[in-house]
Amino acid sequence: MPYAYGTLSVESGTHRLVRISPFDNQGRRQTSFAGVEVLPVTEQTDHIDIPENEVRVDVYRSSGPGGQSVNTTDSAVRLTHIPTGIVVTCQNEKSQLQNKASALRVLQARLLERKRQEEQAKLEGLKENAAGSWGDQMRSYVLHPYQMVKDLRTEQETGNPSAVFDGELDGFIEAGIRWRKQRQLAGDGA
Closest Cα to residue 100, out of 77, 123, 117? Predict the structure, then answer.
């Protein structure tokens, strides 16, 4: 569905259900709350291209054990990712090319992890506070003593909860989009 996230994001919030509990042998009315979160599907990134002009390569002599060849050739490599300041060094291999390839794999892994953290933070920023309790609900579904579904933000309502439960949400979604648009316009003018 095109624009699914933008369209359905108005459904985020606390939904309240009032009904006769099927689990109460005394037939008492029960109120339940459900938090609804609508989040976009994001593609998982498992590879990242690093332009050469964003990486500074420094070569130097390895230190530590490994024989005379370690101390006589510039085989150790330090990569600095200029935009982020991430530094990776590698001196495990005897050849500069092998060390550079190893360091590049480590740098890619660190940049991928950083990107995943940023994407996660962006998703967390999209989440709304959905603490379900009295007074916080955005929509009520009442099945007893009368039949009604009412959006408390938009005043949109219907006397046919079964239709809503079967997916007839268009009226509520459209009213929610208009409500959000009015709030944005009111916020811009303030």
Answer: 77
Whether 99 maps to a domain, the answer reads yes
DSSP state of 145: S
Residues forming a β-bridge with 7: none
- pTM of the predicted model, to two decimals? 0.59
Query: What is each CA distance from 173 to 16, 47, 156, 178, 190, in whole angstroms?
Result: 17, 37, 10, 9, 26
Region 110-115: mean pLDDT is 88
Task: Report the number of distinct structural domains present in the chain.
Answer: 2
Does 47 map to a domain? no
Domain identity same for 73 and 117: yes
Do 111 and 147 belong to one domain? no
- Identify the pLDDT of residue 136: 75
15 within 8 A of 138, measured Cβ to Cβ: yes
Residues 114, 84 contacting (CB under 8 angstroms) = yes
**Would residue 183 count as lying in a domain?**
yes
Q: Which of 99, 125, 151 is the last residue of a domain?
A: 125
Domain housing 69:
52-125
Residue 19: which H helix or E strand, with range? strand 13-20
Following DSSP, what letter does each residue of 141-167 receive, concatenated?
A: EE-SSS-EEEETTT--EES-HHHHHTT
pLDDT at 72: 57
> Residue 89 pLDDT > 60, yes or no?
yes
